[in-house]
Amino acid sequence: METTAVKPQFSEAAQAEIKRLLTHYPDDRRKSALLPVLHIAQAEFGGWVSPEVQNLVAEVLDIKPIEVYEVSSFYTMFNLKPVGKHVLEICRTGPCMLRGSDELTAHLERITGAKVGGPASADGLFTLKEVECLAACGFAPIVQVREKYYEQLDTPDAVDAMLSELRNQVHRPALPWEETGLPNALARN
Ligand code: FES
Prior knowledge:
Keywords: 2Fe-2S, Iron, Iron-sulfur, Metal-binding. By secondary structure, this protein is α+β, with helices and mostly antiparallel strands. Helix content is 40%, strand content 10%. It has two domains: 12-72, Arc Repressor Mutant, subunit A (Orthogonal Bundle); 86-167, Glutaredoxin, CATH 3.40.30.10. The chain is built from eight helices and four strands. The radius of gyration is 18 Å and the shape is elongated.
């Protein structure tokens, strides 16, 4: 029997935030809100933006889907494939590399079982990604997880403390615009 995919929908809280964002721009410049709306979409739909979710973003902003794909595929902060509960963005640029980001990556792959650029760990908790400079070189090596930076991860203890904090996180921290209600993703995460 043929199944029809359910079209994704933003939660009421997200819709309200998108409406508020759009008041910052002229009606014929709705595309200017593309980056923040993609962030909302990613937070809402399990930490990644599927083609269907990107089409929804295009619809909301009244732009062509290709205009969304161009942006989502350019910036590393948008995930185009399913991810684990926590996406660990490991900085691999010069200063972090000199302070051991290669060893850090290998260590994280060993401990979590996930591979950089590959699927999430078997327990669904961790996805590993390499990214360029996170602008915190003085605290290298750095890993970013959502809005939080984990700094000076050059000892096993520091890495263990980060992983244990993330493992114990029941829900991801709420974003400012989520205070008014639980969006789709929070109910699942
Ligand atoms: S090189 Fe890693 S934060 Fe700048």
